[in-house]
Amino acid sequence: MPLGPCRPVTCKAEKIRILNELDGFLECGQLLLVLGRPGSGCSTLLKTLAGEMAALTLDPKSVIHYGDIPFPSMHKQYRGKCIYCAEHDIHFPELTVNETLQFAAKAREEECAARLEPEDPMETSDSRCELVVSSLNLTSASNTKIGNAVQRGVSGGEKRRATLGEVLLSNASVQCWDNSIRGMDSATAYTVMKVFRANVTEHRIAAVASLYQASQAVFDLFDCIILLYDGEQIFFGTTHVAVGYFTHLGFDLPPRTSVADYLTALTNPAEARRFVREGVVSVPQTKMDFVRLWRTSSERHELLQRIGRSRKSEAQGVAFRVQSKQYSNYTTSLRSQVTLCINRCYLRTINSISIPIATVAGNAILALIIGGLFLNLDETAASVTVRSNLLFISILLNGFMSGAEVFAIWDQRPIVEKHARYALYHPMAESIAALLCDLPVKLFSSVLFNVILYLMANLRRSVAAFFTYWIFAFVCHVTLSTWFRSAGSFCKTLNQLTLPLGIWHLALITYSGYVIPVQYMRNWLHWIRYLNPMTYAFESMIINEFEGRKFPCREFIPAGPAYDHSPLNSRVCAQIGTSASVNETYVDGSIYLHRGLGFEADNLWRNLGVLLVMMFGYFAIYLLASEFILASAPGANVLRFPPNSIAANLHKLDEENQSSGNPIRQAIPINKVQTPGNLQTAPGVLYWRDLSYDIPASRSQRQTSLLTNSSGLVEPGTLTALMGATGAGKTTLLDVLAGRVSTGTISGQIAYQGMPYIDTFRRRIGFVQQQDIHLSTSTVREALHFSAMMRWEEGTLLEKTEYVEEVIRILDMAHYADAMIGTIGQGLNVEQLRRLSIGVELVAKPDLLFLDEPTSGLDSQTAWSVCSLLQDLARHGQAIICTLHQPSVSLFEMFDKLLLIQKGGETIYYGDIGHQAKTVTEYFRRRVDIGDSLGSTENPADWIFNITSIPGIDWSQSWKESAESSVLHDRLGQLSELPPSDSTPRLSPSAQSIFAIPLLSQIHTLIRRMFTSYWRTPQYLWCNLLLSACSAALISVSCPSTGNGIQGLKTQLFAVFLFCTLFSNISHQLIPNFVKHRELFETREGRSRIYSWRAFITSILFVEAFWMTVASSLAFVLFYFPMGFHNGRSGDTVLAWLYTWAFFLLTSTLSHLLIAGLEHAEAAANYGFLLFYLCLIFCGVLVPKSQLSRFWIFLYRVSPLTYVVAGLLAVGMSDKLVHCTESELLILQAPDPMTCGDYLASYLASAGGRLLNPDATAGCQFCPISDTTSFLATLNIKYSSRWEYLGYIFVFVAFNIGMTFMVYWVSRAPNMVKRNKPAP
């Protein structure tokens, strides 16, 4: 695979040059190692070679060929043959390792079978999967769920190997692996790379990999290397000539230093000076010096000649084409892909069966409640409006049951798109499978919901009517499901989706044909009705219920003893709005359909055809969108600064300097790494004895031991390394010692400063996690300052600020201290995030410092700098323990002690490392006669891993029988016998508090940070504000101004009803935002006791309340005045704004209450859907209080929307006269010789209403409602109770806030760990 000159690769938006003038050549069956410090462009080079050009632009002059296949053709016609394995692992968390890899194997099964020769044995996908699992040493984790940051699963190293297993099973001809062995110990890393080396050689794959801190054994597996220096190439060649090239330039390779570390160190001026050969005067000093020497070197000249020869010959290209055999992007048919994806969806559903069960159960409960509300409706005219309300509720619930599917789609989009890049399957195959896999749940849920509702409510009792009703309900449900899915696939970000989704959600309800009857819709918005699936379904359900039926009247106008014997032409059916006629004692359902709602009976089955067309149309859009529209993918890591900041302007100058060849930064010289001068340390000893940790095994009652009788200690002034194979329990041990585990059973003894473990101890530990989790909108300096402000017990603001600046200088973060942290591909790179993670713990001045893989993802020089800093901190009295995976010789020898554990957390060594690691290596040689010795150039850490991985030796038992173990237990016994006052000083009173600063100070600092975060997230804010404003405007322009007639009153009533539906749309925005902030709190900041969960809940509620105030003000202006609610009384206007504000606060607090105790946003959205519609149904609009039985009045009173509706209507509609339109007047005939006034006098006195022509003797024009006060009285709304209604709403707001705190405290705040005392 020859690579032509790769010219500048730039980011589209900011046009920052990342790579410049790269040349290379790689043949099939060769491994190319990409070396360079983080930020040099290693990942960008891999993405470019693999065709991952999201947010990147390849210079048109650049030439990249894969044999004789040009770059565009390769990634258009042979996409799956060239893949990029990203540094970050993304998988379906519900699947096990084995299920994940089996899917990848089956997706390539047909291709593998086609490549076999006739005489070769048949290779099945199961056998290939088993081979990969065993070769990557994943057998013990094969049946464990992969998990994610929220769900517990396999370890980071095992997850990384699962990712690499997918790559192995992909059979790609060109593979690019980005930092492929991150998170693995040296022995596992070497084993994995040997597997890849064999695979590359056997299948003649061209592979490119970037590695940091590669051991010499791993380096020797590669054929070629390319060395990058800040985006410039300074070497390309075979591994055995690389050292000679730079030795010729005057740089010697120090003893016991791996070649990879040596070459990477040359790209750092400070470290390169250590390698200058004695007596050499002139060596390259800057990046451009190296670049000029490379471009004029004979090695580059030979490389260009080789590229030229390969371009002229098609031999490599023919070989590649023969290997790929008329290869298309996908090796299996679409049908096979869909089958595979259906099987995977089934496994995901089974592994998380609680979600569909909860969905079905919730819908069944909702059906029982609504069915009970409309229990056994009679078949009189009084039930006509009630039945219409019920069918309207039914279509809303059936239609919006799938609204939360958007969250599930967004969770899986990165995984599906990764598999599409691997050409495992079409994204549309997963879309088809997801819909088909959800159909059984939808079908069962729909049948259960509608059967219960239909039978309990006594809707039209015939088999044909029921199945007609259910068919339309189910088809509408599926149609809107496809619409939600297509909308979710059409947008590139979740924030882009929430605004149009929310507005369309409101439009669906508004133009369903019931809230605004067809004849009253505005002409210029009437077209929305034709795009609304609910319109067609609701029309057919209404037709199915009423067509051809007659509902006898039991109540008439006028009514009373004086009118019992009145002739038919002097009475009319009392059901307003049912289009009843004079001289008739019934309501004709067919007339009601036509006159009352504007529906046509002939449209019954036509509507089904329209729905099916819409369903398949939305489904087609869903498939096309999922196939061709990708989510916003991260590009190259580019520093991003807050808008209009001074740092942003200075950064532009840095970019100009970089483009002109000037170095943008200089690392701190090695001999200048210093510790903060005012470091405070505590002389206490942390020790643990016979420590065990067990967790319940999944699907069983037995316990799984993660730690077994571990013992050890961490003393001030010592630097302890915690090592072990991947999955041995290193992170678990640190979590248990720091009190950060929340499940399981801990037994044994943990003590610090001679005192047993107490909860206040957690905040005194600086814990650098394996994952770099930070608030993306903060800058580096702000993150450090926040940590100092929250974690210092004492000290002035100036002292904290100076200390932060000192840490920034020590960790060499000055040039990006004002850059925003960002997210993957849009902010700090891996190295910068690692430095920040260490920095936020250093500024806290911890008594103990725990670091989980602090050097992972760092180059050798940065790792050396970090360990040098740790070493200096230890020399100043700091007690430090950190996990190491692949330490170089120099790094390993910096540590004083080693704690080595094996699988299950069993200790196999604890003690000194010794000079040149002689103490620890002598222990292993002395304990077991292995006949192996440590070579003078061999890495002792690698040697130890190789020795302890020899099968058949029980190293744990060997340790228990050793003298070193006896010495350790004697020391632990002495420490446990000493009283606290004798062993170490007691803690100060301030140090005994759980948090460093008071709760009010925590809240104040958190609120400031959260306001800044929201301000720097304009997409979220604009979507929130625009959704509120646009929804209010849509209601106002959709609801026609029909005056103060009966229809006008109904319009205003339903306008308030529609306004209340904003709850669901706003909630869908608030819930994911809460989950994002909660993840930061629960995974890092809360576990380190930086601040209280009370402060977290208070701050996010307060900030959301502020923005809800702004949003409610916009919505109020666009809703209240255009709808004609303003009555000229300023007091009522202010009160109406208070109602609007209270409603938005209610929405915000109830949304937070829903998600407070739940893990997933989708589950909270589902529960919110059920709760919201219950509140909406019982708010008094669709079913007035007078029609509720005593049993259901309770729900009417506890529905907060009851008081929102009552309050807005009370202040907006009271004390106005009602003027019936001509079509709304009831025409009666007064008996001879009475006038209309005489005839209706007694009825007007008792029932109200207004007679327009009292002196007439015929054609009495009667308006059933005289004023708005009497209309509101039918809804149990009183103007005099307007302040009472507002008070009730704020009671609900206060209740939501209080319950949010309580639910969070009960479900997530307490530490659920069981602590058992050690056996005597």
What this model shows, in words?
The chain is α/β, with parallel strands linked by helices and 1320 residues long. The protein is built from 49 helices and 33 strands. The chain has a 6-stranded mixed sheet with strand order 9-10-11-5-12-13, sandwiched between helices. Strands 23-26-27-20-28-29 form a 6-stranded mixed sheet, with helices on both faces. Strand 10, helix 7 (186-203) and strand 11 form a beta-alpha-beta unit. Helix 3 (97-107) packs across helix 5 (125-135), helix 23 (533-546) runs antiparallel to helix 25 (604-628) and helix 43 runs antiparallel to helix 46 (1200-1213). Residues 1-13, 314-327, 648-674, 981-989 and 1311-1320 have low confidence and may be disordered.
Q: What keywords describe this structure?
A:
six-stranded mixed β-sheet; alpha/beta; disordered N terminus; 1320 residues
What is the alpha-carbon Rg in Å? 36 Å
Structural class: alpha/beta
Mean pLDDT: 83
Spatial sequence of strands, sheet with the most strands: 9-10-11-5-12-13
The shape, in one word, is: elongated
In total, the number of strands is 33
Strand percentage lies at 5-15%
Major β-sheet profile: 6 strands, mixed
**What is the number of helical segments per DSSP (H or I, 4+ residues)?**
49
Distance between the termini: 68 Å
Helix content: 40-55%
Low-confidence stretches: 1-13, 314-327, 648-674, 981-989, 1311-1320
